[in-house]
Each structure stands twice: as C-alpha cells, then as structure tokens.
Amino acid sequence: MKPFLLLTTRPEDDVASAEAASFQRFSELDHADLQWIRLEREDAPRIRAEEISGIYLGGSPFTVSDPVESKSAQQIHAEKALTEVLDQVMEQDIPFLGACYGIGVLGTHAGATIDRTHGEPLGAVPITLTEAGREDPVIVEAGLPEVFTGLVGHKEAVTALPLHATVLATGEQCPVQMFRVGTRQYATQFHPEMDVPAVMERARAYRDHGYFDPGEMEDIFALLGRRTADLPPHLLRAFATVHARGR
C-alpha cells in the first residue's frame, strides 16, 4: 500500500506524539504506512498523488478565524503550509480527512465562513448524519448509525458553507459537524481520532487554553467518564480502507 500522510500542528511535543499515536491506533496503519509531518515546524511537503494514498490532518490549539495580529509565528507558518498542501490536494484530487481543526482549515480553503458562532465546550454530543452522509462511502464503510455520540470541544466552527460543499453530519449546537468538498476531501468538527480517555488526556494538556472553565474540569470529566464515543474512530480506518492504493 502507498503510505498515508499525517499532518499535525501541535507545538507541544508530548501532545503531538499522543495525537500521532491515536491516529495510528484508530487508522490501524503501521509506521511505514502513516508518515508523520509536523507543519508547525516543517515546510509543506511536495505531494504527488501517485506516491501516496491520502492525507490525515490532526487537531490544533490554533484557531484560523483569530485576527492575524494575534497569531504566533508558528501558527502563521502552519497555516501557510496547510494552504499549500490543500492547493495540491484539490488540484490532484488527493483524499483528505481533517479532524476538528480540519473544519477551519478545509472550510477556509473552500470559502466557508468560519467564526465563533457555533463553538462547543468540551463534551460528548449527539451527531446526526444527513441523507448525503448516510450514502457517503467512507461513512458507510465506517458503519456509523444515523445518530451517534461524538466528542467535541472547539472555539470556532462553520457558520456558512459554499454551495459546492456537502454537509454530511449535523449537531444540535453546531450545524456542520462533518462536510465534504470535491470528491473525497473531508473535515469533521467532532474528534474521530480520540476516545473518552484520550480526550480527557488532551483536555488536561489544554486546560488553560479557553476550551472550558479549568475549575470545572473534574466535573466535566465525571460526566465524560459515564459516556462512550467509540464509533467516530471507525472513520479513520474506513478512510484508509476506502482510499488505500497499491504499491
């Protein structure tokens, strides 16, 4: 199989490593078949569609809709690199799946309105597939039911999608939980790369980043500990299964 690329933008080494491990675990790809690139410190790779199977993009503490003057040099570097990657993705029709931060990145590239209107605090929420979602090949391969539980925690979200984008899943507070542009370029607002223990570990690392009141963290964890969100990670393996290409 030709490898998949995993692109991440997390500045913290321990958090970035944990995220990469989650992608590897749930995609069921080995190290040779999931090549990791950290775009907060590396330049955008030159991509040839015939040499890879597809691309995953992890989450991030970065928020694309923040004012440019408030963004760090690392964030500006990462966003520039991701724009260059998505230019290549769309030009060559390369399979792409972005998790959480992917909504802002792919949405901005596609011309969506991304802002803080539909942010959601850390939690487990019901996600509902649209008619298009129920027919999408990756979602069908993942075996997701019409309604499932997804893990969320984000400051920004899609407020309006361009006409050429297709909503695949919706939520009660956040109307665009998953969409597709092009033929096989996806983004999810919920986290398909984490289960409940993983999202609590991530939350501890970012307890002071404004995703929730730090004083309420243990109460939030108590609620999360009574929930399961084991279905969304099936998307990572399904994406690999549908788009894997022979060597």
Automatic annotation (TrEMBL):
It comes from the Bacteria. Keywords: Glutamine amidotransferase, Ligase, Transferase. Gene3D superfamilies: 3.40.50.880. One of its GO terms (cellular component) is cytosol. It is an enzyme of class 6 (ligase). Pfam families: GATase. One of its GO terms (molecular function) is GMP synthase (glutamine-hydrolyzing) activity. Its EC number is 6.3.5.2. Residues 24-194 form the Glutamine amidotransferase domain. NCBIfam families: PRK07567.1. This is Glutamine amidotransferase. It comes from Brachybacterium muris UCD-AY4.
